[in-house]
Amino acid sequence: MALYIGLMSGTSTDGVDAVLCRFAPDHAPKLLAHHSLSLPAALRRALLDLNQPQPNELEQAHQCSLALARLYADACHALLHQSGTAASDVRAIGAHGQTIRHRPDLGYTIQLNAPALLAELTGIAVVADFRSRDVAAGGQGAPLVPPVHQALFGHPEIGRVVLNLGGIANITVLHPNHPLLGFDTGPANMLLDHWVHQQLGHEFDEAGQWAQQGHVLPQLLNQLLSEAWLQLPPPKSTGRDLFNSHWLHQHLTRYTAEQNQSPNAVDVQATLLEFTAQTVVQAIQRYGHQPAEIIACGGGARNTFLLQRLTQLSGCKTYSSTALGMDPQHVEALAFAWLAHAHVERLPANAPAVTGARRPVVLGAYYPA
């Protein structure tokens, strides 16, 4: 039996999720404690800025990495305190870091992190930089969580799709008669959060209530759906390198010019939600082997209007992972605890059928306490 901490700060850049898990042979990981911290506004702005070239970006990136490590350490200390666990009892921390560039087509992916500092601040070994080894083996480096989805949600008879609705949406196809498959489908919370923050100052659209008040703009929706990346077959992954505020505003500018009027802000939000729903469902229809259920996790699993649209478009029962005993906000953090455990045990943890890597490899780099 061994204890591990998993940390996740995703593409949405809204906060850090931390979990303490117990791993035992022949048992699913057991979540013992969890804690979340919001990203300070200044750090969030700096991270978003670094998704594009910036003056003095090397120093900025390192300063952000150090700030993230301190925030990660605070989350770890909170976990240890609330669970009554000593740092010496934890085998390792799995710390994914914050993705600011993801270009597997060019052979690299960048996650900001300062794992040496995190190990120093916590007194616990850290495993980090999970994506790079898969990219070096010819893979996308993402998504890395499908094997964990399989362990948590696989069913011997029922075909399921696990849908992670983070900044980017990705699916894991779990079918008893087909190999494991997973890939990114396009944006999820990323554009929705950006637009509601720009227009209303809110961090996110609670339960999709604002989007539900608008009307989908068919011409704008068709423009968004014309993005060539969406037609690529898996394996594939994406991020803010493609789907960002500049991408959205290019489409809005084109729409305004063609329609000779600017769209209503609430209608843009409704269209963005429909865009997310349709790109997910199209991916499931092409590669999902007609699943019976869609299990949603990630922050977007709390967007009830989006889940309703997914049910309507797919014809599949769509529900939050909460119904299976796993808070949707904890799934990815647990996955990085699992990946840290796999690294320590020297177990290959990528799924070549998912990422496109040439072979299974051990993921991550180890920083001793």
Give a verbal description of the structure.
With 369 residues, this protein is an alpha/beta fold. It is 41% helix and 21% strand. The protein is built from 13 helices and 13 strands. The chain has helices at residues 41-49, 57-83, 115-122, 131-136, 146-153, 189-200, 209-213, 218-225, 245-259, 265-287, 304-314, 331-344, 352-355; strands at residues 2-8, 15-23, 30-38, 90-95, 98-103, 108-112, 126-128, 160-165, 168-174, 181-187, 293-297, 317-320, 365-367. A six-stranded mixed β-sheet has the order 3-2-1-4-7-13. A five-stranded mixed β-sheet has the order 10-9-8-11-12. A two-stranded antiparallel sheet has the order 5-6. Strand 1 and strand 2 form a beta hairpin. Helix 2 (57-83) packs parallel to helix 3, helix 8 (218-225) crosses helix 10 (265-287) and helix 10 crosses helix 11. It starts with a strand and ends with a strand. The model has no long low-confidence stretch (mean pLDDT 96).
Topology overview:
Elements lengths: L1 E7 L6 E9 L6 E9 L2 H9 L7 H27 L6 E6 L2 E6 L4 E5 L2 H8 L3 E3 L2 H6 L9 H8 L6 E6 L2 E7 L6 E7 L1 H12 L8 H5 L4 H8 L19 H15 L5 H23 L5 E5 L6 H11 L2 E4 L10 H14 L7 H4 L9 E3 L2
Parallel strand pairs: 1-4, 4-7, 8-11, 11-12
Antiparallel strand pairs: 1-2, 2-3, 5-6, 7-13, 8-9, 9-10
Helix pairs in contact: 2-3, 6-10, 8-9, 8-10, 10-11
